[in-house]
């Protein structure tokens, strides 16, 4: 009864096509309205068929016009409002169809000039038309996958796989105790120290915001904040500040990196899931939280029509095989491999000595190359693998130094999660909570201590052992869906040399 009211009450939002297709027949109002865009149209002598989509699901809704005059104005891409009756379909392939009684065109679409013609459109063509590409099946499915992944992430931190022991969990109604916070996009420092920040300034020396007074009336653009300002490369340092008050926090935020790498894994603007929590001294605990988070997301998608549709794009990896593979990673009975960087180098070196497999011989003290990362995940671990305790010299200043290392083998308490087909998906570490050692690390990295006074304060006043991680959201989408490049895992990609709108 409730559903019937929902479907027919004009004051409420009308149902989407996904909702209509999922609703049991008893809930249909006698006549319904559907708004959407014409995906395809096929005219016969006495009848016309159109597929209408509103982006809520794929495939759209089949509309049948027994009065072909009603379909006259319809062209691919036009936006329309149809009224009719939803009935069980007589055709194969869909359960329901709309018998159209009235049709109205909201917006015409010239079939001669419409850039999204029906023939196969190349990835590059779609990148050139990214204002229109959300209309394609793949990008539509990807955007819905981003949505469901975001929801799964929030759900994980709220109630997801147990992070707490089961007795505590039941007492607190499965509350994992993480608090979602918002961190600034404009920052005063380069968290990763890799020199990949975008520096920002107002577009003119005039104040661009009326309510804010500039530092002085003749301020130059760069003086707006009285300090150099950058777009954030990572929310970590700010999350650390909040974690020293709220204990367990996370955020899903945009990050910006002036990367020059033209790879399928790098964007100039991407989204990162970052979590940070106090009172941990255990790298294993960090890895477990990451492992459980990704497992939770994979399980949420174990039956996802959008994921199925995306997998089907890749005939080399049949959808069922891909589903089985991800399902096996989601299973708690198969813990993900964890090994130290030193062990990884030894394993890679032995393999290289036996087969000469790598272009870059693995060497202790050098970063793992993409070919090493993928071999470790795909051939050695045959699944996601955490590589821990990298040499400190190749890592940012904030990572906690491991105790008891040989002077020439100093490592940091950190990890990267490498996954098959992708390489690095997550990076994290314990943070250096000892103020004295942190100051030395800032010096070693040539960073100005005065810029990090507030960060040192977090250690000076009630500092606590803590740690966290960052997960590349587009890389997660790419890995789960089989979409080859992260450039197709975000609506409007930006990378060096490309920003169309
Ligand atoms: O390893 P990264 O640089 O770690 C950090 O930024 C930490 N401060 C995070 C933390 O501990 N809170 O980046 C984390 C992840 C990478 O593993 C990768 O998945 C993704 O962010 N990432 C990118 N994704 C797309 N385009 C880029 N340019 C990326 N750079 C990093």
UniProtKB/TrEMBL annotation:
InterPro entries: Aa-tRNA-synt_II (IPR004364), aa-tRNA-synth_II (IPR006195), aa-tRNA-synth_II/BPL/LPL (IPR045864), Asn-tRNA-ligase (IPR004522), Asp/Asn-tRNA-synth_IIb (IPR002312), NA-bd_OB-fold (IPR012340), NA-bd_OB_tRNA (IPR004365). SUPFAM superfamilies: Class II aaRS and biotin synthetases, Nucleic acid-binding proteins. One of its GO terms (cellular component) is mitochondrion. Residues 202-220 have a biased composition (Low complexity). CDD domains: AsxRS_core, EcAsnRS_like_N. The keyword Ubl conjugation does not apply. GO terms for molecular function: asparagine-tRNA ligase activity; ATP binding; nucleic acid binding. Keywords: Aminoacyl-tRNA synthetase, ATP-binding, Ligase, Nucleotide-binding, Protein biosynthesis. Residues 164-493 form the Aminoacyl-transfer RNA synthetases class-II family profile domain. It holds the Pfam family tRNA_anti-codon. One of its GO terms (biological process) is asparaginyl-tRNA aminoacylation. Coiled coil: none annotated. Its EC number is 6.1.1.22. It comes from the Eukaryota. Residues 200-220 are annotated as: Disordered. Belongs to the class-II aminoacyl-tRNA synthetase family. This is asparagine--tRNA ligase. It comes from Dichomitus squalens.
């Amino acid at each position: 009864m409730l559903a019937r009211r929902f479907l027919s009450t004009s004051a409420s939002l009308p149902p989407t096509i996904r909702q209509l297709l999922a609703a049991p027949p008893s809930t249909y109002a006698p006549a319904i309205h559907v708004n959407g865009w014409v995906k395809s149209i096929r005219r016969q002598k006495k009848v016309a068929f159109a597929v209408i989509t509103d982006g809520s699901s794929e495939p759209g809704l089949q509309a049948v016009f027994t009065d072909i005059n009603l379909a006259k104005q319809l062209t691919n891409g036009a936006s329309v409002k149809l009224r009719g009756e939803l009935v069980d379909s007589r055709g194969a392939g869909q359960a329901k169809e709309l018998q159209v009684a009235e049709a109205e065109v909201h917006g015409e679409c010239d079939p001669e000039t419409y850039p999204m013609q029906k023939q196969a459109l190349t990835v590059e063509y779609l990148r050139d038309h990214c204002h229109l590409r959300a209309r394609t099946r793949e990008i539509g499915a990807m955007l819905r996958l981003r949505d469901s992944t975001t929801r799964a992430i929030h759900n994980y931190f709220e109630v997801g796989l147990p992070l707490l022991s089961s007795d505590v969990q039941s007492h607190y109604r499965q509350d994992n105790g993480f608090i979602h916070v918002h961190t600034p996009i404009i920052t005063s420092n380069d968290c990763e120290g890799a020199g990949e920040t975008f520096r920002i300034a107002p577009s003119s020396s005039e104040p661009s915001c009326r309510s804010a007074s500039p530092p002085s009336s003749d301020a130059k653009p760069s003086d707006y904040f009285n300090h150099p300002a950058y777009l954030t490369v990572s929310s970590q340092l700010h999350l650390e500040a909040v974690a020293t008050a709220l204990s367990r926090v996370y955020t899903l935020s945009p990050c910006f990196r002036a990367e020059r790498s033209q790879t399928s894994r790098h964007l100039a603007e991407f989204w990162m899931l970052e979590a940070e929590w106090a009172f941990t001294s255990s790298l294993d605990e960090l890895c477990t939280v990451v492992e459980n988070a990704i497992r939770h997301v994979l399980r949420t998608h174990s039956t996802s029509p959008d994921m199925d549709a995306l997998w089907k794009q890749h005939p080399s990896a049949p959808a069922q095989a891909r589903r089985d593979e991800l399902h096996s990673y989601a299973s708690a009975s198969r813990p993900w491999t964890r090994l130290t960087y030193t062990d990884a180098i030894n394993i890679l070196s032995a393999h290289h000595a036996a087969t000469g497999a790598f272009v870059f011989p693995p060497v202790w003290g050098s970063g793992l190359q993409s070919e090493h990362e993928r071999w470790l995940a795909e051939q050695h671990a045959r699944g996601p693998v955490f590589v821990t305790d990298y040499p400190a010299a190749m890592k940012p200043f904030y990572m906690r130094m491991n105790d008891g290392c040989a002077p020439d083998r100093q490592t940091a308490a950190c990890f990267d999660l490498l996954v098959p087909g992708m390489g690095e998906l997550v990076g994290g570490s314990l943070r250096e909570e000892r103020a004295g050692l942190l100051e030395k690390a800032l010096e070693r990295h040539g960073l100005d201590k005065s810029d990090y006074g507030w960060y040192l304060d977090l250690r000076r006043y009630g500092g606590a052992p803590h740690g966290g991680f960052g997960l590349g959201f587009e890389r997660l989408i790419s890995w789960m869906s089989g979409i080859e490049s992260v450039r197709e895992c975000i609506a409007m990609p930006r990378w060096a040399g490309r920003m169309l709108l």
